[in-house]
């Protein structure tokens, strides 16, 4: 089955998700929600996997940590990968672990050559353990950290080149970060190493309660903004037909609403394919 | 300017956890990282302690959870497992005047999540009760389903917990008194909870300690001479707490 546009899976939508006849529909879950010993969560995931292609999206490997990957965490991820055989495994260009503690967020780094070495080492260990390539996602930024030696598209390109991984580009993250740090999202998209991009994310954002539009929050609790749809079309016109995922983690609407939004992304991909065949 | 990635990350993490003004606060956006981490931890704890959350209310729970996060951040990215030490918080004894045994209620919430996440049972060629003749029970051990959790409390925490799972907190007046026990099982996928009496608890405890079914029953009968041991045993069988029986050489 050709995988077109997918939806971030929510257990409340299980019945509708497995019954949905949409062509090309696939689902993605946060791996850490299912890295458990057993029980109904895993049973639900396996039932979903039996019906639809599944992607695992990690939020806790701390790929951009100065420390090496937590082996216990990686081995649990590896067991889940073996169990559900996802078509894609992805993680973030972010860190969250410090010593024995895990801070439950995707934290930023100064993009230095030292950080690049740590990241490549950690991706290498992950891919070696999982026995497969992974994708790395661009993060959302809220603060202009000092000390960057690389711009982000060039950094991602070098990570992909050195580690042999692919890239997952979240166009909502691009929009939010460009707004917050003051650069052109279009120029960022154009500078990406398009051959390495194998998945795209879209999601909603909201303005900060105090600072308003000066600080956008990657909240995943709203429909995708028009500006992000435009950015998606621009990216698809460059990279072509790669799977697109709609993420929604807050104020979850009925499945039918998510499906309608997902169908718009599927139409973008179909338009891209049609355009490609015109040559 | 940080000299290396490790120092930058140590200081960034310390700034998130301390909550105090730091060099990173010169950027308004830094608060987003602090808020995201704190909110994710609070939501994880609310998922793990739904009954404590109900008793304390949104404001009280968030305050307790936020303090807990700053002193005991998660040790794993699998947040469903976060917060085992909440039950040890000295604050829990004073946070609820109406339920001074809130720590026991928190322990029951914890048992629920443990039952939910436990291993699935492996398929084994064990015995079921119908295959065992009376004379054999002295050589028969009960093997629990991996999700089975049970406990006896000196407080009415189990009764309160079971009531609160079904009703609004206002409906629980007056709160019950006395000791109480609870049993979680997951025989067919979903987790179920039932209140257990002292005899049922003694049987389960005996099985858990490796006693034969007969020895556990004799001990329970000695402690509670008036009890109907057979009825208690049947109720435990029906609950799905026992995965299978096996014949062992008993001491």
Automatic annotation (TrEMBL), chain A:
<dbReference type="InterPro" id="IPR007801">
    <property type="entry name" value="MbnB/TglH/ChrH"/>
</dbReference>
<protein>
    <submittedName>
        <fullName>DUF692 domain-containing protein</fullName>
    </submittedName>
</protein>
<dbReference type="Pfam" id="PF05114">
    <property type="entry name" value="MbnB_TglH_ChrH"/>
</dbReference>
<dbReference type="InterPro" id="IPR036237">
    <property type="entry name" value="Xyl_isomerase-like_sf"/>
</dbReference>
TrEMBL record, chain B:
<dbReference type="Pfam" id="PF09836">
    <property type="entry name" value="DUF2063"/>
</dbReference>
<dbReference type="InterPro" id="IPR018640">
    <property type="entry name" value="DUF2063"/>
</dbReference>
<feature type="domain" description="Putative DNA-binding">
    <location>
        <begin position="8"/>
        <end position="87"/>
    </location>
</feature>
<keyword id="KW-0238">DNA-binding</keyword>
<dbReference type="GO" id="GO:0003677">
    <property type="term" value="F:DNA binding"/>
</dbReference>
<protein>
    <submittedName>
        <fullName>DNA-binding domain-containing protein</fullName>
    </submittedName>
</protein>
């Amino acid at each position: 089955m050709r995988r077109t546009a997918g939806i971030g899976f929510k257990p409340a939508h299980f019945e509708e998700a497995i019954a949905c006849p949409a062509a090309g529909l696939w689902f993605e879950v946060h791996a850490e929600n299912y890295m458990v010993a057993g029980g109904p969560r895993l049973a639900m995931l396996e039932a979903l996997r039996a019906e639809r292609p599944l992607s695992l999206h990690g939020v806790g490997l701390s790929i951009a940590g100065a420390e090496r990957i937590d082996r216990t965490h990686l081995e649990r991820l590896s067991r889940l990968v073996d169990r559900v055989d996802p078509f894609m495994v992805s993680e973030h260009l972010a860190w969250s672990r410090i010593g024995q503690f895990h801070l439950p967020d995707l934290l930023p780094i100064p993009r230095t050559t030292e950080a690049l070495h740590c990241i490549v080492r950690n991706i290498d260990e992950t891919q070696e353990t999982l026995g497969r390539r992974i994708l790395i996602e661009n993060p959302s930024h809220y603060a202009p950290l000092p000390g960057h030696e690389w711009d982000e598209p060039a950094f991602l390109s070098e990570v992909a080149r050195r580690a042999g991984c692919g890239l997952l580009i979240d166009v909502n993250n691009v929009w939010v970060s460009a707004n917050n740090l003051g650069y052109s999202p279009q120029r960022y998209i154009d500078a990406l190493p398009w051959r390495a991009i194998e998945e795209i994310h879209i999601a909603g954002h909201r303005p900060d309660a105090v600072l308003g539009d000066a600080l956008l929050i990657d909240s995943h609790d709203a429909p995708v903004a028009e500006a992000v749809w435009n950015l998606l079309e621009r990216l698809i016109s460059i990279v072509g037909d790669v799977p697109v995922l709609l993420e929604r983690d807050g104020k979850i609407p009925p499945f039918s609403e998510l499906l309608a939004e997902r169908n718009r992304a599927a139409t973008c991909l179909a338009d891209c394919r049609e355009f490609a065949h015109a040559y | 300017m940080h000299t290396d990635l490790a120092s930058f990350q140590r200081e960034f993490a310390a700034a998130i956890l301390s909550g105090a003004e730091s060099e990173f606060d010169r950027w308004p956006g830094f608060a987003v990282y602090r808020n995201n981490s704190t909110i994710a931890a609070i939501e994880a704890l609310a998922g793990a302690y739904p009954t404590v959350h109900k008793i304390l209310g949104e404001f009280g729970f968030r305050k307790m959870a936020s303090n807990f996060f700053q002193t005991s951040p998660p040790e794993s990215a699998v947040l469903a497992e976060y917060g085992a030490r909440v039950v040890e918080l000295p604050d829990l004894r004073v946070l609820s005047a109406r339920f001074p045994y809130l720590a026991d209620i928190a322990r029951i919430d914890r048992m629920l999540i443990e039952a939910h996440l436990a291993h699935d049972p492996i398929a084994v060629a064990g015995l079921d009760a119908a295959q065992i003749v009376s004379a054999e029970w002295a050589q028969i051990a009960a093997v629990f389903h991996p999700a089975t959790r049970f406990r006896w409390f000196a407080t009415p925490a189990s009764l309160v917990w079971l009531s609160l799972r079904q009703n609004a907190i206002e409906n629980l007046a007056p709160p019950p008194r006395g000791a109480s026990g609870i049993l979680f099982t997951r025989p067919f996928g979903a987790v179920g909870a039932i209140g257990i009496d002292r005899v049922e608890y003694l049987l389960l405890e005996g099985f858990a300690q490796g006693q034969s079914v007969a020895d556990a029953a004799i001990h329970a009968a000695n402690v509670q001479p008036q009890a109907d041991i057979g009825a208690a045993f049947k109720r435990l069988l029906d609950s799905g707490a026992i995965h299978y029986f096996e014949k062992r050489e008993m001491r």
